[in-house]
Amino acid sequence: MTSSTAVDLTKIRNIGFIAHIDAGKTTVTERVLYFTGETYKIGNIDDGTTVMDFMSLERERGITIGSAATNAKWGDHQINIIDTPGHVDFTAEVERSLRVLDGGVVVLESVSGVQPQSETVWRQADKHHVPRLIFVNKIDRLGANFEHAVETVGDRLGANAVPIQIPMGSEIDFVGIIDIIDKKAYVYENPEAIEHNIVDIPEEYAEKVSECRQSLIEKIAEFDDDLMQKFVEDEFISGEEIKKALRKAVLGLKIFPVLVGSALKHRGIHPLLNAVIDYLPSPVDVPSVTAIDLKNADSTVERHASEDQPLSALAFKVVTDKHVGRVVYLRVYSGLLKPGTMVLNSSNNERERIGRLMIMHADSREEVQSAGPGEIVAVIGLKNTVTGQTLCQLDSPVSLEAITFPDPVLSVAVEPKTRSDQDKMSDALVKLSDEDPTLQVRTDDETAQIILAGMGELHLDVVVERMRREFDVGATVGTPRVAYRETATKTSQAQGKFIKQTGGHGQYGDCTLRIEPLDPGSGIIFESEITGSTLPREYFKSIEAGYREAAQSGFIAGYPVVDVKAVLTDGSHHEVDSSEMAFKVAASMAFKSAMSKANAVILEPVMRIEVITPSQFLGDVIGDLNSRRASVQNTETRSDIQVVNAFIPLAETFQYATRLRSLTTGRAGFSMEIDHYARVPSKLVEKVVK
Fold first, then answer.
1. Same domain flag for 239 and 173
2. I need a labelling partner for 463 at 20 to 30 A (CA). Which of 60, 175, 560, 618 fits?
3. What are phi and psi of 55, to 5 degrees?
4. What's the rounded Cα separation, in Å, for the pair 684 and 687?
C-alpha cells in the first residue's frame, strides 16, 4: 500500500489483541500473520522466533514488553493490528493502544477464564468504548473448560458474553469447532493438521447446537426489534439476519461474541479472522472523534473519518530506532497526512514537519506517501511530539483527549559504574522516558542519586537491562523502594505568614488554608472562598503553586500528599512588599502547619493478587500470604487446582515469585495488579519513615 486514497474505510479494521499474561495472545497474533500471508514461517514464543515480540528481551523472557504494530490482509479487508503486553507492569502499553483502536480481541485462557489482568484490560476497553470479541484459547489444554471460561466473563466482568462457536471435544479430544450461526463444523483431521475441513455438524452435536443457536437468537433479539418479532412468531431466521443483528449489538457494546480454539495448534484462526471482519467496527462505524476547538476553547468540534476534514491525529507511542532514530506512532482520525507538510502540535503549540511516513510490520517498515482517516502510521522527523499529543492543521487547531497513565508504585536508585557510563546513562534515560510515559526519572536532592520510578519490579528490571543492552550503560541498582503516599484524615486550618524586611523592598505574603480530606483517587484540589477585595486575585495562582509544591514534598516522610483539598479562606497583602514568591512561601507554610493538625498518615499501595496452586499446597500458600500481611478474600476450586484471591501490600511482594516456586515445587503461578492505597499500620510507620 502506498497511499490511503485508494483505501475504502469500510474495509479497514483497527484491532488490538489484549489479554492476561500467558493467555496466548502473541501466539494468536503470530498465527493471524501466518494465515493472512504476512509471514511464511510460524513464529513460536518458545523458540524465540516471534515476529511481534522482536526485542531480544521479549524473546528471552517469553513475554510482550512493548506493543507492536503490523497489518495484514484478509480477503479484501485490511486489518491493522496492535499486539499488547499482558503483564500488569506494562499496562500503560495497553492503555495507549486501546485509546486509538476501534475494536479488540480479548484472549482468555481456557482453564482459568477471566484473571485479574483480564479485568484490568477489560475496564480499559470499557473506558474507551471498544467493541470486543472473546477468544477462548488453549482449549486443548488439560483442565480446559469452555463453559466455565464463558461464565467467568459474566461473573467477573458483568459482560454479556454469547458463544457463537462451541468446541468439538476438549483437552486432548479437541478436534474441531462448530459455527453456531452458519451451522458448519471446522474439523482438523489429525493433531498436526494446520488446515481445516468444513463439514456438516456431526449428529451427536446437533441437539446442543440447536439449543445454543436458539439461545443466541434470543439474546440478540433483545437488541433488535425485527429479529424479536420473528423470534416470537417462530419464523425462520437466516444466518445473515443473525450476523447483521449481532454486528449491531457488538458495535453498541451490548454483546461480546465468544469464539474458541487453540492458537498453538493453529485451530480457530480462520473463523476468528472472519469474525473480526463481520462484527468489529471500521473507522466509519465508530463515533466521530470530539476535540476542543482551540480558536474557541469553550466549544468542541467533531472530526469525521474523512479526508475532506481538517487534519487531526493523536500520537500514542514513541520509540527510538537504531536505524532511523526517533519514530512517533500516530492514529489519523481525519484529513490526510503527507511527507514534507507542516503541522501544528496543539499540545505544545509548536510546528512540526512530517518527515517520512511508514507502515510498521513489527520491527520492519514500509514507506508510504500518505495516511488518511482510520490509519495507524509511524512518522520519522517529529522532534517535539510525545505520547498523548495532538497533531492538527495549522489553520484549524484542535486538541484531542490526551492519554492518562497511572502513577509509579516502585522506585530504585541507579548509579553509573564508570565516568563514561554517566553521560551515556543520561542519554539512555532521556530516550527511554520519552518512549515510556510511566517511567519517571529524577535526582534525589539529598543523595544526588538518579531515581527511576515505574510500575513494578519487572518494569524497572527491563529498563535497566535495556540501558545495558541498547545503550551500553553499566549501572549499579539499589534495592526497590515502594512509592508511598501521604494524606490528611481530618479537616484543619492554618495561617501562613511570610514577612521579611531587607534594605530595599521587603517580602510580605499572608494566606490561610483549610485542608480537607478527599475520597481515594481524588488527587490534589485547590479552591478559594475569598470574595471581594480581601486579597488580589493575581496572587491566587502563586498560592496554589506553593500548596502543590509543598504537597509534592510531603509532610511526614517526604512522600507526595494525595486526596486532599486546600481551600483559601483568608489572606492579606502589602501594597509594596507583596510578591508572587512571598505568597508561594506563605502557602507552603500554611499547608505544612495545617497538615500538622490534620492527623496525617502514610498510605501504601495494595495489590490484588491471584494465586493458582495445586490443592496439596493450598495451606502453605495461604500461610505464606498471611505472613506477608495479605488479606485472603476467598478460595475457589477449579478441577484439581485452588485459586486464592487476596489483597497484599506491595512492600511484601518482593521475591514472592521465588518463594512461591519453592513452596510448590514450581507448580503454582500468580498474577497481581495495583488495586488501592491503604493506611500503613502504626507499628510499621517508623520503618517506612526511615
1. yes
2. 560
3. -65, 145
4. 5
Which CATH number covers residue 620?
A: 3.30.70.240
Which residue bears the cell 509548536? 350
Q: In angstroms, rounded to a whole number, what is the distance separating the alpha carbons of residues 213 and 536?
A: 71
**Dihedral angle of Cα 546, 549, 552, 557, to the nearest 10 degrees:** -70
- Confidence (pLDDT) at 55: 43
Give the Å distances, CA to CA, from 59 to 40, 44, 47, 91: 19, 9, 8, 19
Question: At residue 15, what is the residue type?
Answer: I
Instruction: Tell which residue, 330, 337, 343, has the closest CA to residue 378.
Output: 330
Using one digit for the tens of pLDDT, what is the confidence trace for 551-572?
998 999 888 999 999 999 999 9
Assigned domain for 524 exists: yes
Under the banding of pLDDT at 50, 70 and 90, the label for residue 524 is very high
Grid coordinates in use for 105? 480481541
Q: What's the CATH code of the domain at 391? A: 2.40.30.10
Domain boundaries, position 462: 412-482
Backbone phi, then psi, for 96, in 5-degree steps?
A: -75, -25
pTM of the model: 0.73
Give Cα separations from 520 to 494, 525, 617 (angstroms).
23, 13, 36
Is residue 591 exposed (0-12), middle (13-18) or buried (19+ Cβ within 10 Å)? buried
